[in-house]
Amino acid sequence: MKVLHTGITVKDIDKAVLFYRDILGLELKVPPTDPVDGLELSIGVGVPGACLRQAVLESGDAGIELFEYLSPVPEFQSPVPINNPGPGHVAFEVDDIHAEYQRLRGLGVMFYSEPNFIAEGPLAGWKWVYFEDPDGVVLELVEKS
């Protein structure tokens, strides 16, 4: 078994596509769809009365599937804080974390810190840094040694 994609619920799918495609450089495979709804969808996603739009972007062998729920109205306007159970973040592997960090900062992306270095342990030599997408979903850049 291997990871195929990660699903992320967003407030505005068009704005999210611009970020993931134009800022992060992912390839848009499925542009934002027209709204879809119906009993089968509601049962399948476990959300009664679901009506949504979706888009799919790819990065290497994995993808990001974006969902904008038009109904029902989301209970929360921000993601659950990263220290709560559930998805924590999506990591993107890069060849040069400092160059990517500077490129993204130049495009207005706000980072939690400068890139961090792991000095010892099983991930010794790795560099990493967290940032957020426009909806507050936590993302990470990782440079493996």
Key attributes of the depicted protein:
2 domains, 2,3-Dihydroxybiphenyl 1,2-Dioxygenase, domain 1, alpha+beta, 3 helices, five-stranded mixed β-sheet, 9 strands, four-stranded mixed β-sheet, 145 residues
Order of helices and strands: EHEEHEEEHEEE
Under CATH, the topology of the largest domain can be stated as: 2,3-Dihydroxybiphenyl 1,2-Dioxygenase, domain 1
CATH-level-2 architecture of the largest domain = Roll
Shape: elongated
Quote the beta fraction.
25-35%
Total domain units? 2
Structural class computed from helices and strand pairing: alpha+beta
**Radius of gyration over all CA atoms, rounded:** 17 Å
- Main sheet makeup: 5 strands, mixed
What is the H level of CATH, i.e. the homologous superfamily of the largest domain? 2,3-Dihydroxybiphenyl 1,2-Dioxygenase, domain 1
Strand element count: 9
CATH class label of the largest domain = Alpha Beta
Unreliable sequence segments:
none
Q: Report the average pLDDT across residues.
A: 93
* Ends distance: 25 Å
State the helix count. 3
Give the helix proportion (percent range): 10-25%
